[in-house]
Design goal:
This protein is an alpha/beta fold. It is built from 14 helices and 19 strands. α4 packs across α5 and α4 crosses α8. The longest helix has 24 residues. The chain starts with about 25 loop residues before the first strand and ends with a helix.
Length: about 450
């Protein structure tokens, strides 16, 4: 099998050996959850329960009317104690529904099973929305919207690259649930009408490949004529980015400002595919997720499945992860490259939380930013073929229109440029700020035109 990849990228230390060999543990005895109301990309939703209401596990507790919304469900059975704003993993406050378990409140409220291969496309998309499924790889885009593209789809990609250092939950999912990954891929192919599906796996997860290939061979969907295969990719960051993945597998480039459907592709994380299977087979909404607990200050790394809304502090208190508090320097939601540093443990797990890292002093070494030396390393590393050095100059001189022309809005904020920069330039932070300023400028211009 030929090993495929994209141009550019970086090679940060993988650090996956700490948790890659650890089986997924289910943390089910959670007594309270703080479920963020808005965890998806799109329009906000509102609670449909009140303080004092008894709710079953899987019961819908928030929803909205916009197409770009998904409902929210109770991840444990109990009583709604509060609906209040709390600090979330994006370092902003958002409304949370607080549920506490009670002995006299129990049971599940799932949907009836539905055959994904005999129902209509409309019924399938409605089931996925009703289950509250969003992209679990990080972006949180509503899956029912992604699976209703306005252009023909020729390839569905199951994203098992998991290129972020430390994170191993996707690898463990492919090892422990290969049949569900394959079935989820087949369901997605059926919905979008794609003739081919591929499971993309980096070289450092090669032990998952024979398990996935065996699951494909044994799948009744394969016997029915569905074309599915596994493709091994070079271990390189950010191989798991949608655009990089598509280029590596097809040789095509998603156009500037475009979407994967513009080149005939749909990309779904392997965790999302498993959630789709559960929604059809079991009628189960997306009320729990797997994530990796790791980092240099984590003395007991783990891959766990927890109810959505579980506080990280409760996971630590329960011993799901053990942390060397004296050596702890930073807590990061997500991976070290694209994740977000948070101020404390009192933050809930969301549907798109792939990991929580407890970083030690050896992993957090503040370096003073120095002037750009024009070495060009950032340009060679950029998987989007941008010029980070020129973008930084445009932003530093407040020339946001020029930054837009250079390709600011095409930056995926992967951090490869910052990682390879010998001058320790905080390039990603500049680009994030630049995007915010540019969006504000465009909004003001639009309001002035409509005035």
């Amino acid at each position: 099998m030929a090993i495929k990849t994209f141009r550019g990228g970086a090679h940060p230390p993988e650090k996956k050996d700490r948790s890659g060999g650890l089986a997924i543990e289910r943390i089910g005895d959670v007594k309270r959850v703080f479920i963020p109301v808005n965890q998806h990309f799109g329009a906000p939703i509102k609670p449909i329960v009140a303080v004092g209401d008894a709710v079953k596990r899987g019961q819908k507790i928030a929803d909205g009317n916009s197409m770009m919304t998904v409902p929210l469900h109770a991840s444990i059975a109990g009583v709604v104690k509060k609906i209040e704003p709390r600090l979330l993993c994006n370092n902003q406050e958002g409304p949370c529904i607080v549920i506490e378990a009670q002995e006299d409140v129990a049971g599940d409220e799932f949907m009836a099973p539905l055959d994904a291969f005999s129902c209509t496309k409309e019924q399938a998309l409605e089931r996925i929305r009703a289950a509250g499924i969003i992209g679990m790889g990080g972006a949180g885009f509503p899956t029912h919207v992604k699976l209703a593209p306005s252009k023909p789809i020729s390839l569905v990609i199951a994203n098992g690259a998991e290129c972020e250092p430390y994170l191993t939950i996707d690898e463990r999912t492919m090892i422990e649930r290969p049949e569900d990954v394959v079935e989820g891929l087949a369901i997605t192919m059926k919905i979008v009408g794609a003739p081919e599906g591929v499971i993309a796996v980096e070289q450092n997860k090669a032990r998952a490949v024979p398990l996935l290939e065996k699951a494909i061979s044994a799948s009744p969907r394969t016997r029915d004529g569905m074309k599915m295969r596994v493709q091994v990719l070079k271990t390189k960051y950010p191989q798991g980015g949608e655009k990089m993945l598509i280029t590596a597998l097809t040789g095509k480039e998603v156009p500037s400002g475009g979407l994967p459907m513009d080149v005939g592709c749909v990309v779904d994380n392997v965790g999302t595919l498993c959630a789709i299977v559960e929604a059809f087979r079991d009628g189960k909404p997306l009320i729990e997720r797997g994530l990796t607990l790791s980092g240099g200050a984590c003395t007991k790394p783990a891959n766990v499945v927890v109810p959505v809304g579980t506080l990280v502090s409760d996971l630590v208190a329960a011993g799901a992860a053990q942390v060397n508090e004296d050596g702890l320097r930073k807590v990061v939601f997500g991976g070290p490259m694209m994740g977000v540093a948070v101020p404390n443990y009192e933050i809930p797990v969301q549907k798109n939380t792939s990991g929580v890292l407890f970083m030690g002093k050896e992993e957090v070494r503040p370096a003073e930013e120095e002037p750009c030396i024009r070495c060009g390393r950032c340009m060679r590393a950029c998987g989007c073929s941008l010029s980070p050095a020129l973008l930084a100059v445009a932003i530093e001189t407040n020339n946001y229109k020029e930054a837009e022309k250079i390709g600011l809005m095409d930056c995926i904020e992967c951090g490869s440029c910052s990682f390879v920069c010998p001058a320790h330039r905080q390039l990603v932070q500049k680009f994030r700020l630049g995007k915010q300023v540019l969006r504000t400028m465009k909004q003001k211009e639009k309001e002035a035109q409509n005035a």
